[in-house]
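Researcher: Structure for this, please.
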Amino acid sequence: MVLSPISFRFAAPMDPHVAGSGTTRRSSRLDWVLLHKSARISGHRNATTAECHTTEGEPIEVSFWLVDPLATLQAYGTHVTPPGVSYFSVQCPGLDDKDFADEPHILCANASLVLFSVDFVPVPGRTFRDLGLRCTQRFVYRAGPGKPSLHLIPDPDIVRPNGVSALLHCGDAGSEHYAMVFLRRKSILGDKARYYDLHVFSSVTRAWSSKGTLPGLSEDDQKLLAKASHATYKRLGRCSLIEKKTYKLIKVGASSLGYVDLSWGILLVCDVFSECPVIKYIPLPASRVCNVDGDGDPYIAPEYCCDVSSCNNLIKFDEVEFDDRDRRSFGNQGWKATTWSRDIYWDDWRVRSSVNVANISVDPRYSDLLPQLWNDKTKELELKKLVFYTPTLSKDDDDFLYVMSKLNSEDDKAWVISVDMKHAAVQAIAPYSTKGRPLVVWQCPYAFPKYLELTPGDSPFFILM
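Model: Predicted structure, token format:
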């Protein structure tokens, strides 16, 4: 099953001086943000802006427009300051919308680093290596130490650079140097085992190196993966492996990477910087609902009901079960969210928290934002009246879940709901404009803002949307 198609359109960013309520954050320090993964094409600049050049020598710049995801509901005069979703913008002076094959989008992030790709329309003189009608170039944004910087990453020296890219710091999270890790599946004729090639780009040498073909999975892991892959193929008509269909990358521990597919599980590459990294397979929780019918066909794509995140050695998985999955998009439906956690040294997942939407309390003050949720009989706000779209787990060792929802599917405005699953309470609600924006894999929590070295005069770049 594929996700519902959404027409492509370049959206212009709101003016940073008038967006939302017009108020700005009182502090210039953020530890993390919820960032929309697709960029907007804009020449606006702020204290986060960094520049470099494309492969063809054309200038390119990137800026981030940040809001606080954890702000509580605060009144300033007649305005309300809610939390919200941050976004980033890309600009190539001299180029316009027609030169981009798609919106630039974030591939992954780690501490102060953000890796994103830009797909240009192929023209004579422009590097063209990726399959398809586009020229993909990858860039690393470094928030600190020092002034923000932007770096073009050359493709690995292989014939077909199709695989999954990730980032790791060389040293502690605030280190200046980093490595870009490129993993791809390798098939060996007559051998059904799964093997992978690992390539590493060093910011120190500005060159790629290869660790060759990594040892295959253990027999036990191969059996678990074969079982999950068979079920995935039955449901989706494909067997998800390490390829462009990877849903998310997570950093686990000091130097391990998790390649996540919400249909079959996590491929963990342990100790990337060691002489011989080891690959392990982590299946998803056995007690998960698996939103499929009796024939094994999915009711909905897993991105609509699942998410994975990590914090140090801990991995978290969340799944949402709907009372009536056939009517999920109509709103006023019940649902239950369950979060599991698993340390990489554990043998299984453990249920961490679970909450039913009917039991989630909502502060009556939010009736000013969403009066449509008010129930005259119970004298309470009912969260289930919203149409549930996607869940997002926080990156911390906590029980917060961020839910993207709408009053109805035709609205251009969505609502980000911060739910404290441990205490079954809404922590915050924020409006977010979705005009021309997809709502699937819509945002991820990133920690790079805390590495920005800002002065008090830089604080106005935090805006509300």
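Researcher: Any notable elements?
Model: The first strand starts at residue 33 and ends at 36. Helices lie at 219-236.
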